[in-house]
Specification:
Order of helices and strands of chain A: EEEEEEEEEEE
Largest sheet of chain B: 6 strands, mixed
Radius of gyration of chain B: 14 Å
Shape of chain B: globular
Oligomer: heterodimer
Largest interface: A-B, 24 and 20 residues
Distance between the termini of chain B: 37 Å
Strand content of chain B: over 45%
Number of strands of chain B: 11
Order of helices and strands of chain B: EEEEEEEEEEE
Chain lengths: ~110, ~110
Amino acid sequence: GAVVSQHPSWVICKSGTSVKIECRSLDFQATTMFWYRQFPKQSLMLMATSNEGSKATYEQGVEKDKFLINHASLTLSTLTVTSAHPEDSSFYICSAPLGGYTFGSGTRLTVV
Amino acid sequence: QQPVQSPQAVILREGEDAVINCSSSKALYSVHWYRQKHGEAPVFLMILLKGGEQKGHEKISASFNEKKQQSSLYLTASQLSYSGTYFCGTERTSGTYKYIFGTGTRLKVLA
């Protein structure tokens, strides 16, 4: 079945640095990718929707300049957390609308 | 607007039943149900598309009411493996297409 490969699975970074998270669609083309953030004991909150070849659509309250999304090809979407701070520590996960929505495995980001 | 789930949390003994509800103020195009274990991606359980639909597999089933504003997930004779957080998910097609999740229900099954 359809698979979305997400890397890295976890990352620890220093405050002020940037982190890039990749989601690759394997064996299918994803024109759309949803990016979510999940804090402990909370729901998955949609951050933005990336569309291949066009600008991402951000949800209200999500800083565009801080969370950079790029969807340069039909198989790769990336989320870059710029100038990360401890409050950005969270579980980030991507999803492609295919087969009941196919999820990446998630990335646990810890900013120290 | 995010669908609201109830209850927020439930604790069961093995073999007991549970019902999880997902409610929306507007009719939903469809509803998906997921189970998520801590630190993992959500696992798709089932999708309901039509008002009045009921479907299920093994001991987990779900329904979608006629107005398509409420869905319920039924867990019968719960097993330890059912523990996790359950989410309903739905598409928003008005304006920009997006996919959002309900508020979540934490389920704990005890031996």
